[in-house]
Prior knowledge:
It is a single chain. The protein is mostly helical. Helix content is 79%, strand content 0%. It has a single domain (10-193, 212-415), classed as Growth Hormone, Chain: A (Up-down Bundle). The chain has 16 helices and no strands.
Amino acid sequence: MTDALPPRYPALRHKDFVLFWGGGIVSRLGTQMRDVALAWQIYELTRSPLALGLPGLFRVTPLLLLALGGGVAADALDRRRVMLVTQSVLALTSAILGFVTLTGQATPALLYTLIALSAATTAFDNPARQALVVNLLPEEDLPNGLALQVLGHQVSTVAGPAIGGLLLGATSAGVVYVVDAVSFVAVIAALFVVRPKRRAEGAKPVPLRLSALRPAFELLEQKPVLLWLALVDFLATFFAGSMQLLPIFADQAFRVGPWGYGLLQSAPAVGAVVASVLISSRPPMRRQGLAVLVSVGVYGAAIAAFGLSRSFPLALGLLALSGAADTVSTVVRQVARQTLTPDELRGRMNAVNMIFFMGGPQLGEVEAGIVAQMWTTRGSVVSGGVACIVVALVFGAFVPVLRRLGEETRRQAERGSPD
């Protein structure tokens, strides 16, 4: 790009990364708007906490069935072409959502079906997306690029729900879905332009079959810290995954309607953006394991306090704190995973990790909905936050390899790329 850019953001000097990054922000902006509309529409159709939690089940089932195959595809096929297909299918799914809603044909069953189709596509899209980022940057700029990826995601997550809530209140869910479908044009256009670096010469081709997953599982045996990182994230988001219950808080606890619901959805990303800016402008953390564990504990405490809050402004602040803590953990885990994983395995390792980092919150939505249905909505959120704190304490006390995270990634960085 240009040498005039601040030296603390070296990833922005690479044109292909900037195009892909910018297109992804626009696309995710639409996706966040869509998710707000979906949750509110399901709540209006059912008025049931359990029904609000069920989308997690319809997202996680295709994910568990297809994620590993998606990882193999990301390593065996051209990652850019894989994303062209998946992004096109996701755009079509949003267009169908818009059509059935605007024509009055939407039912909970149909919405759940389209959610499942979108999740099945994401099982192939996500491993290719995360692996493709690595192919757009030199090794020395990768940590900054990954931090900027998180920052871009959180910027979309701030603006998307807020805009989605306002648009939902002013128009309808169907209009929001149409806007989301159009937003995919940005990332699809970027994919036509970018030219990722080729894989290392002499690298063995990856067969398009599940047996190709064996090296990924062997890497987990060699570097067990990768598995522990994924597991702590899964448990934390499983217990504290209560965002799907926010329509009930907006409607019954705070009485702020769709616009307030959009603000509640955006609040975690506000904190996440602040944390992402700070992280992306600084050198990689040295005590990475401690940073993850403290972040998980703070995340759980913020969620538990949110469940007890009676003030709307205080609730927004607590959700922002939860988003900041979650972002610190996310960035540290991504940098560690990408640093310790050879490029030829990145698609498969991202798929294995996706089962944990996407499976946790989706199953957590189901768990939160069931607990809220059987107990209370506030009880579901508070108990989940407390359980998240317990997870951080247990892992900190009994998993020393996680506490030492940082030493291995520094040694790997000193040796150079694991390719």
